[in-house]
Amino acid sequence: MNSDDFEKRLQSQPMRQIPGEWRTQILQGAKQSVPSPLDPRPSFLSTLLWLNPKAWASLAVVWITIFALQFASRSGAPKITTESVPQSSVFWMSLRYEQQTLVELMGNNQPVDADQPPDAGPKPHSERQSKTAAV
Amino acid sequence: MPAPPDLERLYDEHAQALFAFLLNFTRDENDTRDLLQEIFIRLAREPGLLRGARDERAFLIRVAHNAAIDLMRRRGTRQKYHDQFAEDEVSIFATDENPDAVAFREALSRALAELPADQRAVVHLKLWENLTFEEIATALDLSPNTAASRYRYGIDKMRERLRPIYEEIK
Predict the structure, then answer these.
(1) Three-state SS for A15?
(2) For residue A34, what are the contacts with CB-CB under 8 A and spacing of at least 6?
(3) What's the pTM value of the predicted model, to 2 decimals?
(4) pLDDT of A68-108, one tens digit each?
(5) Is A20 helix (H, G, I), strand (E, B) or coil?
(6) Cβ of A27 and B105 within 8 Å?
(7) Which of A5, A46, A69, A82 is 20 to 30 A from B5 (CA-CA)?
(8) How far is B147 from chain A (nearest CA, A)?
């Protein structure tokens, strides 16, 4: 089998013709794919969001929920503070009551002011002398 | 901004060659149509695409080849796609009333389908586009030696495959 003859034989085989209706379809498709200058060009953001709008919408809902919860917890903060005031007064009242009980047990009937610091050692001489003179 | 390309002229001058190349390469008429559409959409959207191209036909074949390779990659591995090609029976040659001619073309179409896609592309461009090995190398991004060796391997396989029917109808 001659190589040249064989290749010439192959070359002489005509290829199938492209379907005639493709011309209109392909050219129309190509022209429609070009954005018109009158149309606003899609922004990068809209192109990005358009890839998966449901996922982006879900993410937006999650963020809105997080912000809403955050806002709610902030607006509730003063309420917590006002509630903490009675708790602190109850604490001081119970502390005062315990100190008073302790003083009574030790034999002193004078009520002790919880806000006053405890007796810190001997007083200065001048104070002692004034007390003695008064007696 | 470059002037919009004359799509009608480009289609009339090159669509038939691109169709034959893509049909032989993909072995699927729907893929061929999609790829052809993709090429013309690109031409419409990028008016400067052909600027600087010395040979429009060779440039468009390169674009078509790259688009077909991308399609193959999207579909899966090259071998898997090639196997799928080989199984498909698609007529890439014109019909004829002579039964011998029809039989030879069918055998030739099957022999081409059995070639690896790389060899098939080179054989097609050499035989039916009359490109030189340098032009084929530029179009398919190969060295001229690689293009020549792929052609030689491909044509040898086809000669062996077609020898019986060729001798019979000669």
Answers:
(1) strand
(2) B4, B44, B45
(3) 0.64
(4) 998 888 766 555 555 555 566 777 888 888 888 888 887 75
(5) coil
(6) no
(7) A46
(8) 16
